[in-house]
Amino acid sequence: MKSLLKTTVAAIAFAAAGSAAQAADVKACFVYVGPVGDFGWSYQHDQGRQAVEEHFGDKVETAYLESVPEGPDAERAIERFAREGCNIIFTTSFGYMNPTIKVAKKFPDVKFEHATGYKTADNVATYNSKFHEGRYIIGQIAAKQSKSGVAGYIASFPIPEVVSGINSFLLGAQSVNPDFKLKVVWVNTWFDPGKEADAAKALIDQGADIITQHTDSTAPLQVAQERGVHGFGQASDMINFAKDAQYTAIIDDWAPYYIHRVEAVLDGSWKSESTWDGLAEGHVVMAPYTNLPDDVVEMAKATEEKIKGGWEPFTGPITKQDGTVAAEDGVTLDDGAILGMNWYVQGVDDKLPQ
Amino acid sequence: MRIELVKRKEHSQAMLLLSPLIAVALTALAAGIIFLISGHNPLIALYKFFIEPLTQQWSLEATIDKATPLILIGCGLAVCYLSNNWNIGAEGQFIFGALFGSALPILYPDFENVATLPLMLVFGALGGALWALIPAVLKTRFNTNEILTSLMLVYVASLLLDYLVRGPWRDPGGYNFPESRIFSDAATLPDVFGGLMSLSTPITIIIAIVLALVLAKTLKGFEIRVMGESPRAGSFAGFSAKRLTLFSFALAGALAGLAGTMEVSGGLNQLLPTISPGYGFTAIIVAFLGRLNPFGIIVAGFVLALSYIGGEAVQSAMGVSNKIASVIQGLLLFFVLACDTFILYRIRMVSRRVTAGETSHV
């Protein structure tokens, strides 16, 4: 006991002096909105953090806070990291945008990286991935595999990222079956397995035999597995939760981006940027295609290659839900139109919450 | 052998003061064991959890900032509980007050002058009081159970907030995300000291002191205490139970509503679908931990806030799960209640033979 006490006193003394004399060159810190064990969004960000630790070894130290609610606690959590000597802080949810900007103003020497937002500053960069590219592929698979011609989509918040995902999924499906229909349920949460499961059940009861989701838990896929329908993993490969139900998954691979940005802090080349990469850069990765006939797998892989080669899923002809033309034949929507999307394409069986 | 609790004839004054300290010590001991089991050095973890937040100015400020709404709501609730009015709905009053207070900067963003902030605070208190008066009127007019009605109104208020930020009050420039516009500087409660605390802290402390004086020194304070301890005696003295119910609910609601407005104006700067991590419910605990005394509530609010900040500290420094902080909060409350029980009761061992004899009567 005595020796434990001694080492502790020594450790505390060291910890008190420690912030000034850290062994690592850079401290990278991460704020997660969900638990690292959600096996979805926050889990994937934490995989990225672990990849950073592995890649840089002793040169980089990392820390994280999980389940930080979007609200006053978020600002405090980010500020804690800034005070504790973090050199770069990744805030990984849209709702952290204003707190990140606020704290960044107070700590001009610390670099901030906000995922999925639209506000930047000299020391605040933003990053996101072109998840809609993956959505197009799974939309095609859905249309090939569905018997009822109806898919169910569990959506979180009506922000452009989610809306463009819905549209891209349906455009992919319509490229295979022009009459394909999509039902949408808004659960107004990123992570609530109970709500997500209820939404999945409701959609299946309404005739959907393919389930896809823009929420973070594995619950919708598990419901699909139980009810004998099919679906797709979201954010991470969820095959272990739905061996028979998962066709593929859209995996967010943050590791290359995180390593790249921490490297930039190490060599002093860090600049505020807005990064928006997809399949081609490896930020969006398709999980192995399973439970599918060969011709569908081939189609999916061909589309994947096409997108990697620079083709944009939002290429006309695209008709909006109200019948107006969004893009003429062969015209591609620009980044701004996709990043600010607040309209449905034709065929969505839902009214966009306005 | 059976263990029985027997009421003590007298309770020790010394223990009344010592009991919270013993509870904190027991919590620290239990927390240490949990840290040890989860593979962390318990002494470092305890230091990070309970001591380190007090050693740096910013974390001290963060703790006080977190304690502020708890203290303000807790003070109002103390008046309710002292007078035997069981207001469980402070969370709803907090939210409704915040809605009322935010109406001005959201609906009239161009109304920017020195009157903006005072008006918002008055509206906030008014909104909270109105929301609290619903269960109070239901109780005095129709004899409904205020525990149920005040609690149910929490859900009504939070759904109303949810509706407004997703619908009519959504930021027109916010890309459809459910949040209101950001308040202008004129509608923002100024920061004090290092910028982590807003003016809400000094306002709260002043209110707590005034309330303590009112409770201890004035006729109103006497009325509140008498009606709580013996309503019959109070009615002989000419006090009206109904009027006091309305008064205590309105006061608690006003303070909760004020806390809500100050949290939104000084901290969040905008309305979000959720603006409170359960302050209104935690404040119930704070009120009782503080023995329904405003000064006690200030201490209790601080201790509870410390458990949040300390929980973050061990998480960020040592990678301890954030669930452990919740466990430690639960332990703290458990030990406080357990220690209090032993002030009022003592343990008596009853032998098996007597037990059999006693149960046969039942």
From TrEMBL, chain A:
Keyword Transferase among record annotations: no
Protein name from the UniProt record: BMP family ABC transporter substrate-binding protein
Pfam families given in the database record: Bmp
Entry keyword annotation includes Chaperone: no
Keyword vocabulary terms for this entry: Signal
Domain ABC transporter substrate-binding protein PnrA-like per the UniProt entry, residue ranges: 26-307
UniProt lineage: Bacteria, Pseudomonadati, Pseudomonadota, Alphaproteobacteria, Hyphomicrobiales
Signal peptide: 1-23
UniProtKB/TrEMBL annotation, chain B:
Residue ranges of coiled coil: none
Protein's name in the database: ABC transporter permease
Chief location of this protein within or outside the cell: membrane
InterPro entries: ABC_transp_permease
Membrane-related topology note: Multi-pass membrane protein
Entry-linked Pfam families: BPD_transp_2
Superkingdom assignment: Bacteria
Localization of this protein: Cell membrane
Lineage: Bacteria, Pseudomonadati, Pseudomonadota, Alphaproteobacteria, Hyphomicrobiales
UniProt entry keywords in alphabetical sequence: Cell membrane, Membrane, Transmembrane, Transmembrane helix
Organism per entry: Roseibium sediminicola
